TrEMBL record:
It comes from the Bacteria. GO terms for cellular component: mismatch repair complex. It comes from Proteus columbae. The lineage of its organism: Bacteria, Pseudomonadati, Pseudomonadota, Gammaproteobacteria, Enterobacterales. The gene is mutL. This is DNA mismatch repair protein MutL. Residues 337-357, 369-409 are annotated as: Disordered.
């Protein structure tokens, strides 16, 4: 079969299959063109869900008469001119195929006027070869693109369009995303002659909440926390939802890279990993994040619709986003826990507790950015700080080479990445001169490796009364620490390194002690937090009798329940019980109290702690780091003198002696 050159219209219609998926795709491409033109006001008119009419008018710089014909041609653009421009793209569009593809499957009219022209000019394509006709028109400075009868000449595509309501919902979502990316642009959306959305431009940051409320609703604004995190060429800002918010959903999940809206898997994974341990079940975090990256370090030309990007330093970007979001979440949870105390000084100290503790190792993103400096072969004294893997993977020649500019590609980029990660894996050394670290187990002998036994969540009577408070070293107070988490063993033990050596810590026991501290604050009761929607469940007469008997004890834990006509209505619970399945928890609670003739607050608090800890079957290293950090802050007495079922030191001397003995035997034989 002979090879033929495709006609221009057919080639454009094939390209339209990637660019124009539905009317919302047309709106996205045209809005991005308006933003690239410097528009500050955009009006969008939609008829019949976009299938009949899509009209977008802006006040941008416009297109002069001589360029109108090229604007509708294939792969014609003013945004790039060489390969170097393609490697550092800051504009929304750059391929020059949007207008040509749209005009091939619709009746498109482009009217535009520049500041230098006295009159406007209008262009439209017609005929089999899509010849462009230009004629004078009346129009202010800016451009108007009118798309009529989308897919009129491709009925196979038109029949796949959904209902008018569904297609307009997709258009509305695209406009929402664009409005979130450019707060300085006023956008008006009209459907079938009726004004549906009006997003007013924001002149300064103090008015951002008004625009944010109009797009995402007041609930997100009230439950969100502002994020600002920078490190070198990387910067991220925006809003993330509070982890203790009563409602978490995936409806508000917007992320932008250099102003371009993205659905990148790497970014989403970093955010979900930061929320790991804060959300339960199928809960999803809500967020609006703006990531700024050196344009030389990101490739936006990897997806037909430009929905995905590829980072040259993907691991660095992932860890940067993870640390930025995690720092805000930790500060928020520390603030919520500190609100259980009426002591303002304790509250202020908890908020100022350092985020980077020794249990987590050194966090490179918390330090001021410093450009990598050149290393010479003479500077070999610091090589012992690197891990064994780094020493094996880096030759002396690589360690002696100088690090180039981060904006360059190839070998200099690899050296820069290696320098940053070598700095991240250096051993954490405390630089605070006003802190005194107390060693663990001052009067207990280490445990032999062969003597490790499994323990249960048993707690002695004299160690249950604890008070959640911050133990940040200040005014001569001592700061206690477990040490640094090295690995997780059997998914429930943490191998830690302290000044006394290696130790094995039971994460189940630590989690149990932490929950006891949260559920049994000293000399106070837990404050109830009202539920957004009260929960109702039916109770038997026996369960109602048990509840009436222990009502005062149950209310001590912030649980507010009203009994009426054989049904219980849960109006409020305390913060530690907020994320639980309350009907199941209440049923189990009444069953437990029906067996116990007399129950104290400590016994009931321990029962609640066991119920909360039963859901955590396996522990990750990140969860272990967060858990030990909370223990150090809230329960310093367990860190200062930990119980035997919490932590055991590991005696390595017998193992070292055995290895030396075997080595000596082998040497004698040879």
């Amino acid at each position: 079969m002979a090879i033929n050159l495709l006609p221009p219209q057919l080639a454009n219609q094939i390209a339209a299959g990637e660019v124009v998926e539905r009317p919302a795709s047309v709106v996205k491409e045209l809005l991005e063109n308006s933003l690239d033109a410097g528009a500050t006001s955009i009006d969008i008119d939609i008829d019949k869900g976009g299938a009949k009419l899509i009209r977008i008018r802006d006040n941008g710089c416009g297109i002069n008469r001589d360029d109108l014909k090229l604007a509708l041609a294939r792969h014609a653009t003013s945004k790039i001119s060489s390969l170097d421009d393609l490697e550092a793209i800051m504009s929304m569009g750059f391929r020059g195929e949007a207008l040509a593809s749209i005009s091939s499957v619709s009746r498109l009219t482009l009217t535009s006027r520049t500041q230098d022209q006295e009159e406007a000019w209008q262009a439209y394509a017609e005929g089999r070869d899509m010849a462009v006709t230009v004629k004078p028109a009346a129009h202010p400075v800016g451009s108007t693109v009118e798309v009529l009868d989308l897919f009129y000449n491709t009925p196979a595509r038109r029949k796949f369009l959904r209902t008018e309501k569904t297609e307009f919902a997709h258009i509305d979502e695209v406009v929402r995303r664009i409005a979130l990316s450019r707060f300085d642009v006023s956008i008006n959306l009209t459907h079938n002659g009726k004004r549906v959305r009006q997003y007013r431009a924001v002149k300064d940051e103090s008015q951002q909440n008004r625009r944010l409320s109009a797009i995402c609703g007041n609930n997100f604004v009230n439950q969100s926390m502002q994020l600002s995190w920078e490190h070198g060429d990387l910067a991220i800002k925006g809003w993330v939802e509070h982890p203790l918010s009563p409602v978490q959903s995936s409806e508000i999940q917007y992320c932008y890279v250099n102003g371009r809206m993205m659905r990148d898997r790497l970014i989403n994974h970093a955010i979900r990993q930061a929320y790991d341990g804060y959300l339960q079940g199928e809960q999803q975090p809500s967020y609006i994040l703006y990531l700024s990256v050196d344009p030389h370090q990101v490739d936006v030309n990897v997806h037909p619709a430009k929905h995905e990007v590829r980072f040259h330093e993907s691991r660095l970007v992932h860890d940067f986003i993870y640390q930025g979001v995690l720092s805000v979440l930790r500060q928020a949870t520390q603030e919520s826990l500190s609100l259980t105390s009426d002591d303002e000084e304790e509250h202020e100290t908890a908020l100022n507790f350092p985020e980077n503790r020794q249990v987590a190792g050194e966090n490179v993103f918390s330090q001021p950015y410093q450009a990598p400096v050149a290393q010479t072969p003479k500077n070999t004294s610091s090589s012992h700080q690197y891990s064994e893997r780094e020493r094996n993977n880096n030759s002396p020649q690589k360690q002696a080479s100088q690090f180039g500019d981060r904006r360059q590609f190839g070998e200099s980029y690899q050296r820069t990445q290696g320098a940053l990660y070598q700095k991240m894996i250096q051993e954490s050394v405390s630089t605070s001169k006003d802190k005194e670290k107390i060693p663990l187990f001052p009067d207990r002998a280490p445990l032999n490796l062969g003597e490790i036994v499994h323990t249960t969540n048993n707690i002695e009577e004299d160690t249950i009364s604890v008070m959640p408070r911050s133990v940040n070293a200040k005014d001569g107070r001592t700061d206690y620490t477990f040490g640094r988490v090295l690995a997780i063993y059997q998914h429930k033990y943490a191998l830690i390194e302290s000044s006394q050596g290696l130790g094995l810590l039971s994460l189940e026991e630590a989690d149990f002690l932490l929950k006891c501290a949260q559920l049994l604050p000293k000399d106070e009761t837990l404050k109830p937090q009202p539920l957004l929607v009260p929960l109702k469940l039916a109770l038997s007469k026996e369960e109602i009798s048990v509840f009436n008997q222990f009502q005062s004890l149950i209310s001590h834990f912030g649980i507010v329940i009203e009994i009426s006509h054989g049904k219980a209505t849960i109006h409020a619970v305390s913060l530690p019980l907020r994320q639980q399945n309350l009907p199941v928890l209440l049923t189990a609670l009444l069953a437990y109290l029906s067996v116990e003739q007399s129950c104290t607050e400590q016994q009931l608090g321990q029962w609640f702690a066991k119920q909360l800890g039963a859901e955590q079957a396996q522990w990750s290293q990140a969860q272990a780091v967060g858990l030990l950090a909370d223990i150090e802050r809230l329960c310093p007495q367990y860190v200062r003198r930990p119980a035997k079922n919490l932590l055991q030191l590991i005696e390595l001397q017998p193992v070292v002696a055995a290895l030396n003995n075997e080595r000596s035997k082998h040497a004698n034989k040879t």
